[in-house]
Amino acid sequence: MTTPRVLVLNGPNLNLLGTRQPEIYGKETLDDIINQLRTQALMAGWELVALQSNHEGELIDAVHAARLDGTLAIIINPAAYSHTSVALLDALNTFDGKVIEVHLSNIHKREAFRHHSYISSRADGVIAGLGSQGYQAALDAIIATAKNA
Ligand code: DQA
């Protein structure tokens, strides 16, 4: 049996986690979050591939690659592209697996322009406001759903 794979995509400015507005986004770095997720994935027998990019096209290319390489699920924090990117939504609409959208902060408690996410219309689940625990909950859900499929 091939090892099931999950792709974790993080959008613009999330490379600055830890020092970027820690009162909103927390003190953990993106490496901290990804390392924890990788351990969680490994313990369940999954492979985790992670990409952070400040460039919309690079995130889209990663989704296109995931369509073809057997990736079962995508966890995505599109960051500001949530609120602007029809192109990223269109790319995700070509992906057949599970998609879970994660936001560290509760976007609904913040400025009005953050309340709408283009990505949510494709996402199977949306988690906002749980900080890094949101990514862990998303991965748990993906692993549990695949087990029960
Ligand atoms: C974010 C929320 C977005 O509105 C913002 O642009 C981000 C991060 C979050 O994780 O809370 O960069 O996606």
From TrEMBL:
GO terms assigned for molecular function: 3-dehydroquinate dehydratase activity
Keywords: Amino-acid biosynthesis, Aromatic amino acid biosynthesis, Lyase
Coiled-coil zones: none
Residues of the active site: 25, 103
EC number in record: 4.2.1.10
Sites marked Transition state stabilizer: 20
Pfam families, per the entry: DHquinase_II
Gene3D superfamilies attached to this UniProt entry: Dehydroquinase, class II
Keyword Lyase: yes
Ligand binding (substrate): 77, 83, 90, 104-105, 114
One GO BP: aromatic amino acid family biosynthetic process
Family: Belongs to the type-II 3-dehydroquinase family.
Official protein name in the record: 3-dehydroquinate dehydratase
Organism per entry: Vreelandella nanhaiensis
UniProt gene name: aroQ
